[in-house]
């Protein structure tokens, strides 16, 4: 909108428009905004002088104000990126008001499954010890743990659901227990390996225990009696054989096989008498009283079944509760606010809602996670190695890498977050926006997180690692690497047939057997691991396994064989003057070792530095053509004693070459040719 021009000015329309456009942007915006919202001209804060040809707000002032506004928005955006955990710490210290300048509290509030993060969430993981943890169950435990961590004052609970019997509802026979003897112990161990901790559980106790369902049978019986007394449930005395016959007949007739409610009409007095007489029975919920409950799942949205539930069993003949009853009773009594589980339980949730209504309880928030599936979309079998948690433990996968990977299966991290070091970092990084439906495994992403976490560990000084991180580094990296070096060494000493020659990158000749380890790998176990850590600190970005590092960086673990040195010296002449400088540098005082390379470089003209580094690579690796680490890394890792040994060996070979002349050179060249894979293949063929 262009303001009207005073008649006294007598200016053409285009001149008026030009004057309007020359006015600062803020002035034009203020005028337009004030007209739209019908501002009060008596309000000094909204007055803008537009009547004079030359505004009091010149262009420079307008640009400055725009710059200030842009800077303000950027500052606000940066404040919004501040770690939530850091903000909470500040607030606890009285340094933060909880508000972000320029935005309302509602705009900056974080939500987790529809609930503000400043409200506590009590979540639980309730495995059944009928088997061991697999990838899917660990992922469920992880998300329950993360949701609790991400909420202010949240708690994660562990409950063991060990009431799973194999008896048939309606039967008076108690079948064999399905529980696996060591499963509960393995569950604890695997969760601890994964880095998950819980505030309450069978091993820790808590205000709402006991936390094993087998120790809560009286509680379930009391609650079943409550439902029978208020008419929400009834006893069913049908024999299992009769029920099976009814199901077969209904199925053959093309009708629903749901329980027909045969015992629903039995008078309460008769039911009490038959139960008191010891007649076997189950207890069923009168589902017809509750219709078809509907609810809004935090992930899948509104959900309601078309048909009402059958009168499902609450208490079996053996006195044990079914999953549905025990689950609802425990979640309520333990004050669980969010039930987070696999989507296979989505279809059962209306049953649980009916129970909540029968008891007169407020149901928790339900969130059902999409299931992990294979690449072709089919359900993953527990026999599949990619599902078994032991597979990842045996592969020395870091628990935090596995957790970050699982958290990204069906969810995602915020943009720009760093690789997580702790579980709190994962909770902070997650958007808590979940994918519906089947979620395909992505092994490449696990490799990425394994790589990133390993690099993260080696960017942190050794003394700053937590005790858990020190154990992980030792067990997942150092021990496997040292063991691999010893295994390769042993294979090279047994026979040529057992040994697969190592082949440094960039070289044409593999190292022949036997191999000689560096002295650092012949000392105590602690010293060997300390040396392996020194190597890994320098080499974290390229290789995935201990075998890769050992075979592609052999010069850190074994001394180059003399035959490798002879081949290199015979193939290309070495500047003796530069080599002598190297020899002097490594044989200098040990006190000056840290500065040995710098002083060596100072003695060599800058134009000859490439020749010097070629000689250093020859001495350290055994070949001037090898692709290896920088000279500084080679000096740092190998150390002065090893450099002295290798320079002495090269010096003696140079002396031998100078004395022998062309004859010895040709002899060494012939030996080198015989070491090449092509020559060996030819010899085998002949």
From TrEMBL:
The keyword Protein biosynthesis applies. InterPro entries: Glu-tRNA-ligase_bac/mito, Glu/Gln-tRNA-synth, Glu/Gln-tRNA-synth_Ib_cat-dom, GluQ/Sye, GluRS_core, Rossmann-like_a/b/a_fold. Residues 37-47 have a biased composition (Basic and acidic residues). Residues 121-414 form the Glutamyl/glutaminyl-tRNA synthetase class Ib catalytic domain. Gene3D superfamilies: HUPs (3.40.50.620). Its EC number is 6.1.1.17. GO terms for molecular function: ATP binding; glutamate-tRNA ligase activity; zinc ion binding. It comes from the Eukaryota. Residues 34-54 are annotated as: Disordered. It is an enzyme of class 6 (ligase). CDD domains: GluRS_core (cd00808). Keywords: Aminoacyl-tRNA synthetase, ATP-binding, Ligase, Nucleotide-binding, Protein biosynthesis. One of its GO terms (biological process) is glutamyl-tRNA aminoacylation. GO terms for cellular component: mitochondrion. NCBIfam families: gltX_bact. Belongs to the class-I aminoacyl-tRNA synthetase family. This is glutamate--tRNA ligase. It comes from Fusarium albosuccineum. The lineage of its organism: Eukaryota, Fungi, Dikarya, Ascomycota, Pezizomycotina.
